[in-house]
Write a structure and sequence with these properties.
alpha+beta, 2 helices, 12% helix, 29% strand
């Protein structure tokens, strides 16, 4: 008896891709849009995504307190402006970028 095969898109059969650029990073980059509630695996860690993450945006891979450095490329890119939980979208609403901020660069030098 012949079975009828239904095509299934690759988006339905694989988990969204994320990129951890450097092992010290606290965020990963979404290479696919990720829906809230989706589970992703990063460096062997399972993370439940809490917010919709657009393509190219950052997702926290560990909990951060307000004032903690956000690390991408192995570099400090800014400061968490509020607590950020693992799996949350990291963007301008909860990240104060250090780019163009001389005061944050001075603070970074003082921390090291």
């Amino acid at each position: 008896m012949a079975r009828s095969l239904q095509p299934v898109s690759s988006q339905e059969t694989r988990e969204p891709r994320v990129l951890l650029i450097h092992p010290n990073d606290t965020v990963a980059v979404a290479l696919d849009p990720i829906q809230a509630g989706t589970s992703i695996s990063i460096a062997g860690i399972e993370i439940s995504v809490r917010d919709d993450i657009p393509f190219g945006h950052k997702v926290a891979i560990r909990d951060l307190e307000a004032g903690d450095w956000v690390i991408k490329y192995g570099e400090k890119i800014g400061v968490a402006s509020q607590p950020i939980h693992s799996g949350e979208h990291v963007h301008t609403h909860n990240l104060e970028s250090s780019r163009g901020r001389g005061d944050l660069l001075v603070a970074e030098r003082e921390v090291q």
